[in-house]
Amino acid sequence: MQFIDFRLRWEGRLNRTDLIEHFNISMPQASLDISRYLELAPNNLGYDRSSRTYVAGANFEPLFPRSTARRYLAELHAKATGLLEPGASFIGHAPPMEAAPSPWRAVSDEVVHAVVRAIQNKVAVTITYQSMTSVEAGSRRISPHALGFDGFRWHVRAYCHKRERFSDFVLARILNLEDAGPSSVHASADIFWNTILTLVLVPHPKLTAAKKRAIELDYGMEDGRVALECRQAFLYYTLRRLGLHAETPDPIAQQISLSNRAELQPYIDALSASS
């Protein structure tokens, strides 16, 4: 049903062969599936006898979240970059697209597997880690409890028994990993991870009215603002990605502004103190 809904929404047409090829089903089963969809949404499709194809109705209304523009663009990007195999995508005829290139951060399959298992089994691990502050890689015992992605790199959120605090460790910098036995550390103790902050974004106050409206459209703002929820542990990464880690009076260089910066400043200062 989702496949039929998706194809009608984004390609405007569908035939039984599409279902047969994608799901490896019989012609009678494909006909039954389309009939079932017709029962759910009788106004969403009609039959074009000249092309022998089902077409989206003039008043088509998608039934499933996967048919939203956000999901379509995410799937298009994943398919184009090879993250999603062609057979796993509902997109049939993809429009040409390109994405800004970004170097892939090398991550060991074995390290990721071991970290995920450690989180699942609530055990500590001893890692050989190459930090930015040390010439040589050093040994750390950590108790991991979550994974995180900052937009460029994958991290594991863990309690560091050496520094006696929760920290982020870049997965690509873990050179070796060994089981260190059961861990008594609980994720509930990670205050930075469990504290959810709200970032209120607005157009830069020095922009013209027309440019403010353009920014409001870009960010899906309502009443000139949009709120983002962010874990305190990821506040630094989020501000960096948004270009809001430092204030600038230039509206061209920084087209958005953090309207509640004063409220968030103690949390920003706390991150600096813990680095």
Q: Calculate Rg over CA atoms.
A: 25 Å
The CATH architecture name of the largest domain reads Orthogonal Bundle
Topology as a string of helices (H) and strands (E): HEHHEEHHEEEEEHEHEHEH
Q: Regions with pLDDT < 50 over 5+ consecutive residues?
A: none
Q: Give a short account of the largest sheet.
A: 5 strands, antiparallel
- Strand order in the largest sheet: 7-6-5-4-8
Number of domains: 3
Roughly how many Å apart are the termini?
Answer: 49 Å
H/I helix tally: 9
Shape: globular
Number of strands: 11
Find the structural class using helix and strand composition. Answer: alpha+beta
Topology readout:
Elements: H1 2-11, E1 13-14, H2 16-23, H3 27-40, E2 45-48, E3 53-56, H4 69-80, H5 109-121, E4 123-129, E5 138-149, E6 154-160, E7 165-170, E8 174-182, H6 191-194, E9 196-203, H7 209-218, E10 226-231, H8 235-242, E11 256-258, H9 261-274
Helix pairs in contact: 2-3
